[in-house]
Amino acid sequence: MDGAAERHGPTGIHRRRAIWSWAFYDWANSAFATVVLAGFFPLLFLDFWNAGESAETANLRLGWANAAASLFIALAAPLIGALADRAGARKRLLLLFAVTGMFATALLAGVPGGAWLPAASLFVCATIGFLGANLLYDALLTSVAPPARWHAVSGLGFGLGYLGGGLLYLGCVAAALKPAAFGFAGSTEAALAAFLVTAVWWALFSLPLVIWVREPPATAPAASRSLLRQTLAELRGTIRHLRHYRPVMIFLLAYWLYIDGVGTVIRMAVAYGRALGFERSHLILALLLVQFVGFPAAILFAHLGERIGPQRGIYFGLGVYILVCVWGAFIRAPWEFFVIAVLIGLVQGGVQALSRSCYARLIPAARSGEFFGFYNLMGKFAALIGPPLFGLFGSWFGEVRYSMLALILLFVAGGLVLSRLPATAFTAPADQSAQ
């Protein structure tokens, strides 16, 4: 085996099996993102675990729960990633986080009505497990495929995630809409069962990764105290490098602001619609629209960015989000919620994809891993402002509709910061030399 093969794992059938096994973890864990994070948990949190409370109070509690999980991962991400690399424990730590998330998700099925604090606590644990495992899942890409195939393999995981999460969600929706046909006494029982089904799905389709994806070797095996010192030294070094790239710093600030708004819409839209009195069936179908519109729209949006420029493409997406926020504050009928769902599906994946390609042109290619570590860190810090702000606006003004207007602040602020960079900053890759 040559040096390249040794660095990037087995060849032939073994590599293909490792690639598909890795990609199927996206199929496995996307069920949590769709069924739990965006779908059934917000509904049950308002209607079942916060029964008798005002919509403003329930949304505020949900916002703080989302923020708590995101804050933990954001603060721990650099340490987790660096320790996993140095100790050769990426796969083992992935499984530790994933199993934590699976158990917490399954336990949600048994939380009784009105018990909002146990439900929120388990949700935080499940979300931390999901996000922590994702950090390490991304890091395993470099060990299952050679560099020339990273984009294709990453896309395979993305596609399987959309398909797997959407299919399981569709099945759970069918059970919630027609509970008697699936042996449930009512829609609430079917929705609670969705948590257990999601945990089993997550565990079952994680098995190929457990069996066929190899644990990468440690980069610097050493005593735990030495590992910690080396990790902190790496983090300080990355921060010093960032200070030499002002466009990168500006973009990261803009990205943090507007992607927080995007993430808040994903996390809070269902809860918001329920607070306005829309039927569960309408909200569930709206989320399905986002799922199935989003995949092809993200591809088409990328082509739009190439034609008009990626920065303008992001502005267009943020403009649609602002329209969604304004319209969302005044909607009255279910059909309006469906139209808003389609609008979100048209731009959600596109804004994320163009953000990544814009950032890639600002950073030195020789340090792409290091700089993308901070990009992902800012993505995890998103949800620290938006969900609490969403809940606070509803509480401050005594009307849940004001919550949607709060998100306009994030989109406008992100767009204004992004405008500090000229369009020419995104026309060619950054200088690869060290600063």
UniProtKB/TrEMBL annotation:
Alphabetized PROSITE patterns for the sequence: MFS
Upper classification of the organism: Bacteria, Pseudomonadati, Pseudomonadota, Gammaproteobacteria, Cellvibrionales
Source taxon at top rank: Bacteria
Domain Major facilitator superfamily (MFS) profile: from-to ranges: 19-432
Pfam families: ATG22
Transmembrane annotation, as ranges: 24-44, 64-84, 93-111, 117-137, 149-170, 190-213, 248-270, 282-302, 314-331, 337-359, 371-394, 400-418
Keywords per UniProt: Membrane, Transmembrane, Transmembrane helix, Transport
GO molecular function term, any single one: transmembrane transporter activity
One cellular-component annotation, GO: endomembrane system
SUPFAM superfamilies: MFS general substrate transporter
Keyword Transport: yes
Name listed for the protein in its UniProt record: MFS transporter, UMF1 family
InterPro entries, sorted: Atg22-like, ATG22/LtaA_families, MFS_dom, MFS_trans_sf
Subcellular compartments: Endomembrane system
Membrane topology field: Multi-pass membrane protein
